[in-house]
Amino acid sequence: MDARVSAKIQSVFEEPACEHNQNKDEKARKKGCTKQLSPGAAAGGCAFDGAKIALQPIADVAHLVHGPIACEGNSWDNRNSSTSGPQLYRTGFTTDIGELDVIYGGEKRLFKSIREIIEKYDPPAVFVYQTCVTALIGDDIEAVCKRAAEKFGTPVVPVNAPGFVGPKNLGNKLGAEALLDYVIGTVEPEVTTPYDINIIGEYNLAGELWQVRPLLDALGIRVLACISGDGRYKEVAQSHRARAAMMVCSKSMINVARKMEDRYGIPFFEGSFYGIEDMSDTLRNLARLLVERGAPADLLARTEALIAVEEKRAWERIAVYRPRLEGKKVLLITGGVKSWSVVAALQEAGLEVVGTSVKKSTKEDKEKIKEIMGEDAHMIDDMTPREMFKMLREARADIMLSGGRSQFVALKAKMPWLDINQERHYAYAGYEGMVDLVREISKTLFNPMWELVRVPAPWDVPAVGEVC
């Protein structure tokens, strides 16, 4: 492994802002937050995949994968990250190296690919992603990117996160390190205001950022940069001039938030856009930090007034669904912030959460689950497909909320299922998002399809007089 990559990984493993990691002893801390992958065990995503997921939502940048075509094919467009403008991020660029490149090296091919992209598309920047094969043959993408940037006058950013170095979450952080090393702080904004903020670790899945922006606009708060959902290269480059920052609870980019605080004095807090109460707390914390950094004090009162109006409206709309949903049981198989943040809204709608997954949750997430659901909360560490199937078949849950990987367990059990993870096409952020979530649960639960699929097939029904 490249010494530079090893050093970067070690610094990520010892991230001082990660409470979970700092509670370990020195030996355990050096092993990082998650187990290293063994060959063939990257079903949950490798480091390259994590880096590309973290950075690809920057919509006006050309994202070039330096490796075999399969790496780009497997990582392309695997999240429904939406854009309000440029579409270049949805174009798959790859050097498509072959056997001869493995023998002779792929650096010349990479340089030519960068030149072709710049000449044809003229992007504000090109991000180049290292992969396992090119890292193993020793291609120095950092040197090639530096030479290309000097030659063509366009920023070319190396993202050194080959898949074999670890899991997806590590890749998220290594992608963030590339922004810190090569992008953030390289452009000065034309105008700054006392209301400028950064949102870090938000990917605008299904357009969720757009459900939050109107609330911020109503308070006069400007998103100087979202890293990286619906992002633009210039916005990220000038994000060092923000007054405050919010880190979405996934902790995928905690190193960005902490280092920007150290380098530029931008205070941050961990918040969530999921759940009505958590959305309100997020607005309060943003207002508090901005006022502490010099924004007018009336921002606090205006924030409370907006929260009162939005909460009242959201609870009234959710209450409409309560008679239909009263007593229905939900199995929540997700992770991180969603393992607890949507529970309160589900309970308010009359739903009973019979279990929530904590496989990807932190200690703090688990404590919040206990606060909301009580000490007897059923927290599922790692439920096998067989256990999920049994739970649904025995009607211990009426609907499962999960990601796409476990949908077929619910469908095989002939039980309602709703996508709540990254591949979804409905946005569930903010006050509006929670109402949408409850509405979608109601529509899914009472879809007449479920009664039809449970009816025995004609060939399984005994004929008149036939002995079973």
Do you know the CATH topology of the largest domain?
Rossmann fold
CATH class of the largest domain equals Alpha Beta
Q: What count of helical segments does DSSP give?
A: 23
Mean pLDDT: 86
What portion of residues is helical? 40-55%
What can be said about the biggest beta sheet? Answer: 5 strands, parallel
Q: What integer value in Å does the Rg equal?
A: 24 Å
The first-to-last residue Cα distance is: 65 Å
CATH superfamily of the largest domain: Nitrogenase molybdenum iron protein domain
CATH architectural arrangement of the largest domain: 3-Layer(aba) Sandwich
Q: List how many beta strands DSSP finds.
A: 13
Write down the oligomeric state. Answer: single chain
* Overall 3D form: globular
How many structurally independent domains?
3
Q: Strand order within the widest sheet?
A: 11-10-9-12-13
Beta-strand content estimate: 5-15%
Low-confidence segments, ≥5 residues, pLDDT <50? none
Can you tell me about this structure?
The structure is a single chain. The protein is an alpha/beta fold and 468 residues long. It has three domains: 3-182, Nitrogenase molybdenum iron protein domain (Rossmann fold, 3-Layer(aba) Sandwich), CATH 3.40.50.1980; 196-317, Rossmann fold; 320-453, Nitrogenase MoFe cofactor biosynthesis protein NifE, C-terminal (Rossmann fold). The chain is 46% helix and 13% strand. It contains 23 helices and 13 strands. The protein has a five-stranded parallel beta sheet with strand order 11-10-9-12-13. Strands 2-1-3-4 form a four-stranded parallel beta sheet, sandwiched between helices. Strands 6-5-7-8 form a four-stranded parallel beta sheet, sandwiched between helices. Strand 7, helix 13 and strand 8 (268-271) form a beta-alpha-beta unit. Helix 10 packs parallel to helix 13. 48% of the residues are buried. The mean pLDDT is 86.
